[in-house]
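To whoever is on call:

I kicked off a structure prediction for a single chain this morning and the downstream step that reads the tokens threw a length-mismatch warning. I double-checked the sequence; it's 131 residues and nothing unusual in it as far as I can see. Pasting both halves so you can look.
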Amino acid sequence: MEERIEKIPVFEQDFEQLLTFLCDVDGAISPTRFARIFNFDLQTLALASQVPVDKLWNTPHDERIQRYLSDCLQITQAAAKVVDNVEKALFWVKNAPIPSLDGKTGYALASAGRTNDVLRYIESLEAGFCG
């Protein structure tokens, strides 16, 4: 029997569409869909959210998991405003090292509890300052 994999839509400038895709019917962010969007396996996501991988499967609504996913999306939303494209923002959060923040990516900084530092950095880019 074949497993059916849901297609990931193209979001372009529609961050709300990204949220709609990621959220379950009860409003929680789906770790599985989040991992697909960022092109991670669940082990990588578990390490970043600092929980065992089985917790992603068994208790995806866990506060720690949801906080981490929410932090990453907050960074993504701020970045999308700067680059005017959700896919580019997703790529940036995952892959672009931020020189003034120890050369770490937004994704890694969110894992380290430094979401506000990333948001301030993005605000400085919006204001015309270079990172």
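Update from on-call: the warning came from a stale cache, not from the record. Cleared it. Sanity check on the structure: The CA atoms of residues 110 and 116 lie 8 Å apart.
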